[in-house]
Task: structure prediction
Amino acid sequence: MAGRVDALYIFLLIVCGMVTLLIFLCLAYFAARFRHRPGVRAEQIEGSTALEITWSAIPFVIFMVIFAWGAVVYFKERTPPADATEVYVVAKQWMWKLEHAEGQREINELHVPVGRDVKLIMTSQDVIHSFYIPAFRIKQDVLPGRYTVEWFRATKPGVYHLFCAEYCGTQHSGMVGSIIVQEPAQYEAWMNGGSTGPLSVSGEKMFAELGCSTCHRNDAQGRGPNLKGVFGKPVQLEDGRTVTADENYLRECILDPGAKRVKGFQPIMPTFQGLVSEEQVNALVAYIKSISAAKTGDSAKTSASAAPQARVQPDGSQVQ
Result:
């Protein structure tokens, strides 16, 4: 994204510079052309419709170009690729805690491979922070009580600065870190250097320990909704609304289950607010997402196996 952002910024500088130069040239010309001279009376100019249309239409076109260009860059920057590698980020005064989907944990450092899309799913456990990587031209506020998302694709190995760009307390200036971009082979070696296991596996254990599996069963007998395949799908609520089951929806259901109750189910789920940490919420969300992905994959395999296969007859014709 850095090249796209820089191109737009350079365009803005050129336009502003040209307009500034034009204004000063006009000022100099008018000051010389219409200066006070003895015996020459000032002449009242009523105005020019053509001139007013011109100096209104041209800036309008320029502003619309800036708007359209900026919108394209913004939506590209705000739409993570579907197959991006996910990293969960928890901000706190005054550090960054990061956990890869594979289970690797880091503090104030993030290792990523060159050329791979990386999606950051971020939340704060205290105040508002802002995840800022100047070299990548990306910055996103990190808010308490919800997830925010940003993504990037590093194109050059190296170590890049990470800052908090939102004043978050007395040690705000010390809330810094590094983005370490490695070649794929180096990254795999680092990733294999030690892990507690995938984040989704930790979430599965916690799901069982908290007793979630007693209500959220895989059949229709559970007292809570079946969570397999729910992620990314529309969910109908008791109040008639329909929402998409994204990360923020799953998080809210864990911490405040009565806020968006699924249609057909009683409000019997207890809140886990204050009982689980931000890292544990991330693990539970990762587990629910993993069983949704597993069900999608299983469905695709089932559909493929169930599809009628063509047989080739001796004469070369095909029959189902």
Notes: Residues 296-320 have pLDDT under 50 and may be disordered.
